[in-house]
User: Which sequence fits this backbone?
């Protein structure tokens, strides 16, 4: 990455009052039409996102950022997320920017790395895995209680903190109550897409909005835990397959036998993952019930 790429000056000018001066900036990612910086000062740390106006393949990124900002305001008002998570947002000469509180954690895939081999079966690791899953479910339960679905539950949109808790991020695609104008939701990361969402994508036009419901988040949670623990995606298809073909496979809700791909036996964990991946949405546990199941496992 080109570390010389500066963040939008309009954003930095406002954020310096939040983080204090002198502030340092570091580019963390530059992909899929958006860039993310870590901005750190003596009073705090924030993550700043801005669209890349030079990326012709991501023309909706500015609109997506504005949509996420609107979602964060509504979710905060509904007490579904922490009131301090959204730091600020605005426009710049190239489009839109959004700043959120920095979450000090690592993506679930990286966090689960020690558990993906036979040597991962250690007494200390079992409660740690259950604790991550439990706090992940609790974060989703807050959203669901307010009538929202995150709609993009996947390993990179959840961070594991040093305390072993899950922190959910990236609410750009969230689906909530009301009929406000928004970008049509057409699924998110294919590998964690619920079967009912896959079927709806395949049977509707590209501009049709599909509202994700809480059970789709539960599937995404189960798929993420399955994938990050076993190293295998829950539904089998070729890496190079077309998205349409992958969605067709997912819509059948036929997952790999967990017992065939698990790195080691963990009956309590496996039971809950299987419950999350129930083919019918109504057969999946709620996020609240799921958190309780992990607590008693």
Assistant:
């Amino acid at each position: 990455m080109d570390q010389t790429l500066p963040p939008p000056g309009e954003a930095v000018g406002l954020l310096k009052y939040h983080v204090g001066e002198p502030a340092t900036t570091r580019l963390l990612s530059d992909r899929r039409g958006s860039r993310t910086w870590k901005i750190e000062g003596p009073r705090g740390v924030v993550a700043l996102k801005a669209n890349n106006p030079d990326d012709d393949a991501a023309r909706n990124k500015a609109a997506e950022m504005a949509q996420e900002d609107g979602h964060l305001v509504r979710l905060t008002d509904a007490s579904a997320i922490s009131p301090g998570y959204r730091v600020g947002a605005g426009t710049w000469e190239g489009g839109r920017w959004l700043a959120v509180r920095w979450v000090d954690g690592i993506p679930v895939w990286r966090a689960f790395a020690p558990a993906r081999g036979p040597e991962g079966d250690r007494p200390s690791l079992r409660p740690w895995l259950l604790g991550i899953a439990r706090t992940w479910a609790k974060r989703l339960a807050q959203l669901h209680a307010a009538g929202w679905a995150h709609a993009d539950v996947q390993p990179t949109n959840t961070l594991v903190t040093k305390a072993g808790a899950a922190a959910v991020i990236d609410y750009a695609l969230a689906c909530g109550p009301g009929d406000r104008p928004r970008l049509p939701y057409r699924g998110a990361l294919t590998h964690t897409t619920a079967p009912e969402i896959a079927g709806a994508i395949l049977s509707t036009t590209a501009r049709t909005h599909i509202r994700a419901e809480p059970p789709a988040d539960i599937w995404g949670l189960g798929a993420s835990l399955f994938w990050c623990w076993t190293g295998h995606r829950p539904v089998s298809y070729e890496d190079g397959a077309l998205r349409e073909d992958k969605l067709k496979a997912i819509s059948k809700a036929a997952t790999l036998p967990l017992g065939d791909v698990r790195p080691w036996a963990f009956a309590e964990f496996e039971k809950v993952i299987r419950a999350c991946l129930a083919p019918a949405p109504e057969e999946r546990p709620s996020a609240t019930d799921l958190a309780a199941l992990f607590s008693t496992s």
